[in-house]
Specification:
Belongs to the uracil-DNA glycosylase (UDG) superfamily. UNG family. This protein has 221 residues and is an alpha/beta fold. The protein has nine helices and six strands. The strands form two sheets. It has a four-stranded parallel β-sheet with strand order 3-2-5-6.
């Protein structure tokens, strides 16, 4: 694994790249990609960083694991490649956008269009072995992505953090709530959404209202 992360992130994360845990993580990921089918493709491991530079961040959405089916994961949480069937969580995200903002359900599940507007789509674990959910958890990725969240909290202000589900909500401890907007709800997965913990959270309009209140352009969700 080459850490081909956009140069704008180097001042934020240089210290992490030099820590022993990260060196071990790199070796682990290299070995996994050599001996197993893993996702996303190697060049897209750091897509969340390539598509959203630090100076542009307005929103952070935190996922847990990349999709582990063929051709799905593209390095942005909840996002899938063009032409790929929308997974259940993404369907529920789009349904909430549709009802919250009265916009049509989109054809493409590729969320690069969000990332290009300053939405950081960050999975806590950036890689996974094919068809084995959670297979790369507790190998160092979470330490790295926790540091990313902390650095964004420290060095930015007025970022909207969308924390969906119990796992993401635990990241609240890394965020300075006195200088950022934190929105929490249930997870968009069918299990949570069908119990009434997702639909109607209006996170997308709440986010845009906040951005407009501080003089920033709203996101075209």
């Amino acid at each position: 694994m080459n850490v081909n992360i956009h140069s704008s992130w180097k001042p934020f994360l240089e210290d992490e790249f030099n820590k022993p845990y990260f060196e071990k993580l790199v070796e682990f990921v290299k070995s996994e990609y050599q001996h197993h089918t893993c996702y996303p493709p190697g060049k897209q491991i750091f897509s969340a960083f390539d598509h959203c530079r630090p100076e542009n961040i307005k929103v952070v959405i935190i996922g847990q694991d990349p999709y582990h089916g063929a051709g799905q994961a593209n390095g942005l949480c909840f996002s899938v490649n063009e032409g790929v069937q929308h997974p259940p969580s993404l369907i529920n995200i789009f349904k909430e956008v549709e009802s919250d903002l009265n916009v049509p359900y989109p054809e493409s599940g590729n969320l690069e269009r969000w990332a290009s507007q300053g939405v950081m789509l960050l999975n806590a674990t950036l890689t996974v072995r094919a068809h084995q959910a959670g297979s790369h958890q507790n190998k160092g990725w979470e330490t790295f992505t926790d540091a990313v969240i902390q650095q964004i909290s420290l060095q930015k202000k007025n970022v909207v953090f969308m924390l969906w589900g119990g796992y993401a909500k635990k990241k609240t401890r890394l965020i300075d709530s006195s200088k950022h907007k934190i929105l929490t709800s249930g997870h968009p997965s069918p299990l949570s959404a069908n119990r009434g913990y997702w639909f109607g959270n209006k996170h997308f309009s709440h986010c845009n209202d906040f951005l407009k209140s501080i003089g920033k352009l709203p996101v075209e969700w």
